[in-house]
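Self-study notes.
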Amino acid sequence: MAQIDRLFDKLLQKEGSDLHLLEGEKPKIRVHGRLKAIEDEAKLDRKTIESYLKEICHDERWEYFKQTKDLDFAYDKDAHSRFRSNYYYHLHGMGAVFRIIPTQIKTLEELQLPPVLKKFAELKSGLVLITGPTGSGKSTTLAALIDYINSRETKYILTIEEPIEFVHKNKNSYFCQREVGEDTPSFAQALRDASRQDVDVILVGEMRDYVTISLALSAASMGALVFGTLHTNSASKAIDRVVDAFPADEQGKARTMLADALRGVCAQLLLKTADGAGRIAVNEILLATQGLSKTIREGNSANIRNIIQAGKSNGMQFMDDMIEDYLNKGLIEGLEAYMKAQDKKRFEQFAPKSLV
């Protein structure tokens, strides 16, 4: 048993989501979105934090961390506990953040996600974007979508991640899970390799640069179903982010590719529940239509609101509508609705005067 495991045990006992270690500070855990120090722990000096971090990281990775000052990997504490790990340096020394990766993949129903998301999993080809800020549950939603496919289809599914988070077991489909930095040098290289691997479904853990985005679009255009993540909080911003990743002289081509390949966007946020016992997801849903293809080609992002409004009967929805629905049902509090809403005026009656 590693020394750091006792801190993970405390995190699990308190049903937290993240463990934060910072040289010069007490260990902290995040519970239902709030970060709190573990009061019975001492402040971490260099010797202690280095022993914690080095013990669960093999020598090659540790040397990489010392050279680059940053490291991502997954740590398996035991058969029931897995953590996404990020090591880094800061002004006062070393730091690390560990996020729990559930070993049991929840279904779309268990996550209380909109049923329309099943349409994404039933597609044969194209690009689906799952977007949201860090910590919004994108990976959990993607895992549920992939598991839905795995339970119903006979597909060859490739995941490209840094690090691998959810480990999928073969059901009806079978998997190749590749970790960037371990099994492949980059997202881009793994996508290039995928073109020769007869892949049906590709999960791209992060579409972070022009090359990766371009190759993901190409894979979707060539007949694969591609799921990718972006750090945006709305459907229209996701489309703009994809196009803006291309050089100016290639953005026209990018719009054409995206217009042909995009099948849908699910933007997601996590909100604290009114009872303080957890968090709940809210989503904005955009589905592909002829009008959407034309809108993307013309670069008319403002029209996406009209497309979502017109498509509500087909399952499209605005983030703020879902926030209002949860507020009316008493699932979230007014201030939380105001803080997470895109249209602040819609919820400003719930905000302190200092914020309005």
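Second protein, same conventions, sequence then structure:
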Amino acid sequence: MKTLYVTDLDGTLLTRFERVSEYSRERLNGLLSRGLILTFATARSAQSARAATEGVAFRAPAILYNGGLVYDYGTGETLRCELFREEEKREVYSVLASHGVVPFSYGACTKDRERVAWQAGKETEGMRRYLSHRVGDARLVPVGTEEELLAGYVFYFKCIGPREKLEAAWNVLKYDPRFICIFHQETYQNDFWMEISPRAANKSDAVRFLKERLGCERAVCFGDTSNDSDMFDVCDEKYAVMNADDWLKAKATGIVGYCEEDGVVKWLEAHSGF
């Protein structure tokens, strides 16, 4: 049966250095050249995901922003995009502001020009760290007002800051059926992150979309934490890496090796048939 394989990146395919290891890169390129249909589903942007997977010849479209975008690197085409309605993005901002949370707003001035906006001068330490790793990124746009922050198309909010403030806002937004609100500790730092998307922007719907588009009969996925949970719900087989959250392991078909030990790729070598 034609199978689509989907892997999370951070904490799953990537090492702690936020890169694909030399071993995994070499083995993946061999599998892909022999016909393996593999893509990734990540909270990262197109630019950040490309940097993290540099050297791997992925051919299938990628799932970005936890399902907010499905993007074809080969053609530069956005195949699927889920946006906040005007009133929705303002309500999200209102809840965040009431708890002292400062967000990054991911969107576009036009449908073809992505931007990441934030209110200059209000950055948390975690936001400053995030920005320091993205110097020169043309998407970054510091703004002054709420109106500028929410202008245009918005499909994703990212918040990085103290646990107490983020968790308080999360305890409001997580009950709103219009949104997906994910709260977790960042994989590589001590920062806490919260990510808010429209309800339709999720990995599960994006996997189903790609599975149909690519004519696949089965889907197999790999993950490690909360933003992989809905993807596990729709895949025929789902595998948690050894370093995954225990509750996600309980949902899994099986457990593969640690991300630091190329667990995903070693499983693919042993079981994909390529």
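Instructor comment on the second fold: The two ends are 13 Å apart (CA to CA).
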